[in-house]
Amino acid sequence: MAKNDNLEFSIEQDIVYPKHGVGNIVDIQVQEVAGMTIELYVIRFEKDRMTLRVPTDKAVGVGMRCISDKDTMNKAFVTLKGKAKVKRTMWSRRAQEYESKINSGSVILLAEVVRDLYRSGDQSEQSYSERQIFEAAISRLAREVAAVEGICEKEGLVKLESVLSPEIAA
Known about the structure:
The protein is of the alpha+beta class. About 45% of the residues lie in helices and about 20% in strands. It has six helices and five strands, in the order E-E-E-E-E-H-H-H-H-H-H. The radius of gyration is 18 Å and the shape is elongated.
């Protein structure tokens, strides 16, 4: 069976999958499952050492998207520079909201989580679960910054920290 030429994504393209972050399409395969022929994107997530297969006709529906453009990334940086918005609700409820934003696939919502959970040196300590959610969010955001700017994840993290703490970068 011939591969579909009007696909949303292509081999070697970096993409964002909502629940896993930045991945790279390494192949497009055709497989037969339960008597049906299905075309699949084969996505490699280096950070997690994981490979995911997503039906090509379901990719957009599950929220898979191209890496953000520079414009969108700049909006995320503006969000990071904004004032933290911490609701006075129970931590378990806020934690659910943060997890939902992290897994949304939106770089802007990811930036909101990083901004809201970021603690500079003079602020109170974070709980273990706050720190875990913050680390997950900033790591995922750093991977996308790195993919957009063609740098390594560590350099992406340094860039994010300089946006969050301009006084450190000065």
